[in-house]
Write the structure tokens for this entry.
Amino acid sequence: MRILYPDIQTNHEYSLATDDGHTLYVEESGNPNGIPVLFVHGGPGGGCAPTHRRFFNPDKYRIILFDQRGCGRSTPHASLRNNTTTALVDDIERIREHLGIEQWLLFGGSWGSTLSLIYAQTHPDRVCGLILRGVFLCRKHDIDWFYQRGASAIFPDFWQDYLEPIPEVEHQDLLGAYHKRLTSDNELVRMAAAKAWSVWEGRCSTLDPNPDVVEHFSDPHFALAMARIEAHYFINEAFLQPNQILEKCKLIRSIPTTIVHGRYDMVCPLEQAFALHRQLPQAELHIVRDAGHSAFEPGIIDNLVTATDHFAPNQA
């Protein structure tokens, strides 16, 4: 079974200003002459971390990480202003142009798979491959499954804590209720909602309980960006047309694609990967029998590292 590559340091770090008030954190590591790969993190609002460099052989890949608008080391923190899917796609293209890259491999999980697919459908000539984990299609029923009714039946104990900040009278529209609190002027209200929202996701992300994951999701700095930005995107249906990703898959059927999905993924159920695979029959679909949603479960790591190794077998 494959494991992550050893820790590496960055070669370069950049602060890249947009035209509309955001500054993006971008970093490079690995081989400057290797295959360019962009790690597209989840959330939206999750941010990247040094561990994310470790899915790639540093001798073969030019590894590029960035924090999307409003999260991680990008500024302003937790900002919703000019924060849309189209803006994020434009940011990725801005990074590509800034780094002088002709084509790159996109590696994205959860919301990162969403954004990778949308970027590829917008700029198919710029993408030489896709490695997608925990596919999230961002359809209304995909969002409702986790935030209104669905996963609640699998984790009823954790669900009670998710409901705690919301009065019962508002339970018929939990996304709206959370969005109202996460955009409140009251800092205490915002933080209470952010922690409950983010911890719910952290608790459900792994097949086996993982206190380290839950602790990370409960960190106030992380939780505020994650919860505010996710709620902002999801109440706006990710700024997408209904079923947009599946309907535009014909644009990317020539792109080599690998899909890795945990069978017991309760955040983004396996049906989403199946639906995508039906539209991308050229793609490899790997169902990991003993995994949930997290990228850091052993079976998921094994499949993702195997995929990156297979993509660059002969790279010097």
